[in-house]
From TrEMBL:
Cited SMART domains: Alpha-L-AF_C (SM00813)
SUPFAM superfamilies in alphabetical order: (Trans)glycosidases, Glycosyl hydrolase domain
Signal sequence interval, chain numbering: 1-21
Alpha-L-arabinofuranosidase C-terminal domain: residues covered: 318-509
Name assigned to this protein: non-reducing end alpha-L-arabinofuranosidase
EC id: 3.2.1.55
Organism lineage string: Bacteria, Pseudomonadati, Pseudomonadota, Betaproteobacteria, Burkholderiales
Length: 516
């Protein structure tokens, strides 16, 4: 080997692997104690009739010049397929409790135009209804999670929707579905009874909601092979009463209880903080507040444990993500925000938390898939850009249906700024469905690289191979002018001559590697 090549190789090893530094963080993976399977639904998505999340962002209609398949844009669907979207929740959100499914079936030109009272007061053309939604999830190869209308709907309306979607009989509703172009029943994997019943879904108490839920659930009849798993709409970060009451009252009648938690940099709904151009105090406050997800899961799980110690019920975080002030000049009702490296780090921190609680957390749905809040994709007319959050989802694909493994971190320093203090490194490991061992590492510190010494008892680690996502600035993001400003880069590390392997995790970075 010539001396220049040797020098380059030595530099690479110094950058990404080699012997332990004295102050290294020690990370141990216990492969002998496998934990729960990380349900692929933890990587679920959410698409609401809100802003340009569905209309423009995904649905352009079959006559559009933008290349599409039966109205759904090919570029967006193609990109979403690459992150293996396991399921999509639809049609809301708050919108679900004002949505009447009969408005969205039959010839599109004859469907009624409604007002989207929750989101900007704009016209809702009902162009995307039941058949269009199922076409989308079938194009994606994903499951459908349909959210029923409890707020302004009724047991009858939900019961009829279930019959329309799932009946194989010759009933009038099943025949109407056939007339509208679908012979076989749709596969409704999940169906929720209402959304945020404590707020936009009707301002109810958990006790009142659980009585209504029991009534509605009784009438959600479907042939056994088509019967969806039914979900109860639960609480938020303010209290655990919903998890407590619903796990007691609905134990035998529900697949799981939902839970919503949004990360707001300032912690205040008035003046949430900007999506770009923020200072370090809002980087750390965002990290610190998103890490509270773990405490929320613990408290809600503990409340559920009282009534369901066998953990038959799932805690389903079917709305989560960052929520910033809307971008200047955009409709405030459209919840459009930019998406930066900070969002990717937030996503990865939450994935690591969800993995650690995979015994209870069986589904999560980030809000939302396209153009709304912490989105995967941003579009403008025929243009599309992939966000850092998209890349976090792409890097974590090997964790879908993997078996979680215990990870212990020692000597993990705190990263401190202003009033906040958080652990520098977050990690998660799992045995993938392909048999390989995967490790995810997140460095929350935007200023300092971290040295992580890897230890897997009973296994000699030779190398790590995967990807890293990082950038020079905390708010680096992709734009239509610079669509590749931030994207994953290959990452490798090799054991040193002493057989030990340490990973240099760059500042403000997410790494996912296969361990060999
Ligand atoms: O995701 C935006 C909104 O946030 C949803 O419609 C609602 O459920 C929540 O409050």
């Amino acid at each position: 080997m010539n001396p220049i090549k040797r020098g380059v190789l030595a530099l690479c090893l110094l950058a990404s692997g080699g012997a332990f530094a004295a102050d290294a963080i020690s990370l141990t993976i216990d492969t002998a104690k496998p934990g729960a399977v990380i349900n692929k639904d933890i990587y679920g998505q959410f698409a609401e009739h809100l802003g340009t999340g569905i209309y423009e962002g995904m649905w352009v209609g079959p006559k559009s010049k933008i290349p599409n398949t039966r109205g759904w844009r090919n570029d967006v669907v193609g990109a979403l397929k690459d992150i293996h979207v396991p399921l999509v929740r639809w049609p809301g959100g708050c919108f679900a409790d004002e949505y009447h499914w009969k408005d969205g079936v039959g010839p599109r030109e004859k469907r009624p135009v409604k007002v989207n009272t929750n989101w900007g007061g704009v016209d809702e053309p009902n162009a995307v209804g039941t058949h269009e939604f199922f076409d989308l999830v079938e194009q994606l190869g994903a499951d459908a999670y349909v959210n029923g209308n409890l707020g302004t709907g009724s047991a009858q309306e939900m019961s009829e929707w279930i019959e329309y979607m799932t009946s194989d009989s010759k009933s009038t509703l099943a025949n109407l579905r056939r007339k509208n172009g679908r012979d076989k029943p749709f596969k409704v994997a999940y169906f929720a009874v209402g959304n945020e019943a404590w707020g936009c879904g009707g301002n109810m108490s958990p006790q009142y909601y659980s009585d209504l839920y029991r009534q509605v659930e009784t009438f959600l009849r479907a042939p056994k092979q088509y019967r969806p798993k039914i979900i109860a709409s639960g609480g938020n970060d303010n209290d655990v009463a919903w998890s407590e009451v619903l796990s007691k009252e609905l134990k035998k009648q529900t697949y799981g209880i939902s839970f919503h938690y949004y990360t707001i940099p300032t912690g205040k709904w008035e003046g949430k903080g900007a999506s770009t151009g923020f200072a370090e105090n809002e980087w750390i406050s965002t990290m610190a507040r998103t890490l509270r997800m773990e405490d929320h899961i613990r408290r809600n799980s503990a409340a559920m444990d009282k009534n369901d110690p066998e953990k038959k019920l799932g805690l389903l975080v079917d709305e989560w993500g960052t929520w910033y002030d809307v971008e200047k000049g955009t409709n405030p009702g459209f919840l459009f925000q930019q998406n930066t490296l900070r969002d990717a780090v937030v996503a990865a921190l939450n994935f690591n938390i969800f993995h650690a609680h995979a015994d209870r957390v069986r589904m999560t749905n980030i809000a939302q898939m396209v153009n709304v809040l912490q989105s995967m994709i941003i579009t403008d007319k025929d243009k599309m850009v992939l966000t850092p959050t998209y890349y976090a989802y792409q890097m974590y694909v090997p964790f879908q249906n993997a078996t979680s493994l215990p990870v212990t971190l020692q000597n993990n320093p705190d990263y401190t700024a202003g009033e906040f203090k958080i652990p520098e490194i977050s990690a998660s490991a799992a045995r993938g469905a392909d048999g390989k061992l995967y490790l995810a590492l997140v460095n929350t510190n935007p200023n300092k690289e971290a040295d992580v010494a890897l230890n897997i008892p009973g296994q000699t680690v030779r190398s790590l191979k995967g990807n890293v996502l990082t950038a020079a600035a905390m708010d680096t993001h992709n734009t239509f002018q610079a669509p590749n400003a931030i994207k994953p880069a290959p990452f490798t590390a090799a054991a040193g001559a002493d057989g030990k392997l340490s990973v240099k995790v760059p500042a403000k970075a997410v790494i996912v590697v296969a361990v060999e």
